[in-house]
Automatic annotation (TrEMBL):
EC supergroup of this enzyme: transferase
Sorted UniProt keywords: Transferase
InterPro entries: CoA-transferase_III, CoA-Trfase_fam_III, CoA-Trfase_III_dom3_sf, CoA-Trfase_III_dom_1_sf
EC number: 2.8.3.16
Protein name: Formyl-coenzyme A transferase
Species annotation: Rhodococcus coprophilus
GO MF, one annotated term: formyl-CoA transferase activity
Length: 414
């Protein structure tokens, strides 16, 4: 925490990082998610971008007015500083902002004016978190990292031979949260020891560590059977998706013997399943046995779902312990009470885009979610940041803007 923080900046339950200031030089998902997470926890996060925005400033989805809904979602609660990254004077301003804040989060590479060694030589307690594509410094993004992680080879229908990519940027999301954890850990360490920290976080290593933590790499190294595609089944236990009489699909998971017992009772297959156990000489209380013989079980249970409407299925499942969920579209989710009545989602009037429900952090503090704040436009806060943190006068800021070194305010399209 900044030792000179005012009383208004002191941490509260919903803003535990109040008084912490972070400069973020980033684009796309991982690093911006890190900054947004820190901002939601009360830190002042200054996102530094080129004039006109970085490569993600107009990323889809877009509004009819060409404003990025994506960018607004990942930059809520930040301040925007816009500068000409090729201008030496602007580079000096950004360096000074980093040195004044004492924390930098970036996925930019090859910029000497953001180099850790040079900055730490001036401010030894600097916290410098750099997200890379790969540990060797070469480029990578979520979708190329995922290709190397093995998952596309085991995703999709059982009879498919081609790799299947998932649409969720899971490694970016994990990397962004790892980066935020790195900052919080380094801030704590600095409070205790006064020391700075250099953190290097390769996106590829986030993916590979996760694959290893889940046991997939060890399984292969120890000679285990190669993983195969299993469609929507759940590896090592019982899970299957079923279609109702009116064409709605449900995902059903029976992790425990109780779940499985309830599923057989619900579907009226208890006697048939008992006979199947005897015929196969297995015990379906063991989840591995349920997985191995899943296709036979799918046929038994599927008949019950196929004769009932989604409403009837939902009502019946709700009275059991069975883990279940109806497949929904994004549009259906947006109307679901789990969003519309969820205190994590708050009504946000996002300039240039409109009013909608936007999520705060999933964590609640003492029963309260932090307030959702809108994302800025490129350069909205440049003048205020230069004045508040670098002490520049209005005339000095105007001169920098006139010279094209910085952008001080988004121009009104009208």
């Amino acid at each position: 925490m900044n030792p000179t923080a005012s009383t208004d900046e002191l941490p509260s339950s919903t803003a535990p990082l109040a008084g912490v200031r972070v400069v973020e030089v980033s684009s796309f998902v991982a690093a911006p998610l890190c900054g947004m997470t820190l901002a939601q926890l009360g830190a002042e996060v200054i996102r530094v971008d080129p004039i006109g925005g970085a490569a993600d400033y107009k990323r889809w989805p877009l509004t009819e007015d060409n404003e990025s809904i994506y960018w607004a979602g990942l930059n809520k609660g930040k301040r925007s500083f816009a500068a000409d990254f090729r201008n030496p004077e602007a580079q000096g301003l950004i360096r000074n902002l980093v040195l004044d804040a004492g924390i930098l989060v970036t996925n930019a590479a090859g910029r000497e004016w953001l180099d850790y060694d040079e900055l730490a030589a001036i401010r030894p307690d600097l916290i410098h978190v750099q997200v890379l594509g790969r540990a060797d410094g070469t480029g990578a993004v979520d979708y190329t990292v995922n290709a190397a992680a093995g998952f596309p080879q085991v995703t999709g229908p059982e009879n498919l031979s081609d790799p299947v990519n998932h649409v969720l940027p899971a490694w970016d999301v994990s990397c962004g949260l790892y980066a935020a954890l790195s900052v919080v850990s380094a801030v704590y360490r600095r409070e205790i020891t006064g020391a700075g920290t250099r953190v290097v976080l390769p996106l590829e290593d986030v993916a590979f560590a996760t694959v290893g933590n889940l046991g997939y790499i060890a399984e292969a190294q120890l000679g285990g059977p190669g993983r195969r595609r299993i469609g929507n089944a759940v590896y090592g236990t019982y899970g299957c998706d079923f279609t109702t009489a009116d064409g709605i699909r449900f995902m059903i998971v029976a992790l425990t013997p109780r779940h499985f017992r309830d599923l057989t009772e619900l579907t009226g297959t208890t006697h048939a399943v008992t006979a199947l156990e005897a015929a196969l000489d297995v015990d379906f209380r063991d989840e591995g046995s349920r997985f191995e013989h899943r296709h036979v079980l799918d046929s038994l249970f599927g008949a019950w779902f196929g004769k009932r409407t989604a409403a009837d299925v939902e009502e019946a499942l709700a009275a059991t312990s069975i883990l279940h969920e109806r497949y929904r579209t994004f549009a259906e989710l947006a109307r679901d009470p789990r969003v519309t009545d969820n205190p994590m989602f708050q009504k946000l009037d996002q300039p240039r885009i409109g009013e909608y429900l936007a999520p705060s952090t999933p964590m609640s503090f003492d029963g309260v979610h932090p307030t959702v704040r809108p994302a800025p436009a490129n350069g909205d806060d440049t003048a205020a940041v230069l004045s508040e943190h670098l002490g520049l006068t209005g005339d000095e800021i105007d001169a920098l803007a006139a010279a094209g070194a910085v952008r001080t305010k988004q121009k009104d399209p009208a």
